[in-house]
Amino acid sequence: FNWAMDEEALNSSNPGAEFGLKLILDISQQDYIPYLSSAAGARLMLHQQKSFPFLKDQGIYAMAGTETSIGVLVDELERMGYPYSDCTMNGSDVPVKNL
């Protein structure tokens, strides 16, 4: 819906379920092959706009034929570096490198 690396994010200006994103999905359950797929539905995930969604590891499953509502509270955490803590800003001062 709102994933793009260079595009401006679409925002909701009011809180509450009436002003959020609403979707009606056609699951096409008749096209599912028995014994190959255990369920029919959609995988839903909320993530930052410029991050890639890893649906296999995260998200929730919305079953076909049901209504699903997700409430979200966004919290931002900023780790402060010296002199407040020993946190590193970009990892350049840490001897271990990510693979």
TrEMBL record:
Major subcellular site: membrane
GO molecular function: ligand-gated sodium channel activity
InterPro entries: ENaC (IPR001873)
The keyword GTP-binding is assigned to this record: no
Membrane topology per record: Multi-pass membrane protein
Cellular localization per UniProt: Membrane
Gene3D superfamilies per the UniProt record, alphabetical: Acid-sensing ion channels like domains
GO cellular component, one term: sodium channel complex
Keyword Ion transport set for record: yes
Swiss-Prot/TrEMBL keywords: Ion channel, Ion transport, Membrane, Sodium, Sodium channel, Sodium transport, Transmembrane, Transmembrane helix, Transport
Family: Belongs to the amiloride-sensitive sodium channel (TC 1.A.6) family.
Protein name: Sodium channel epithelial 1 beta subunit
Annotated source species: Hypotaenidia okinawae
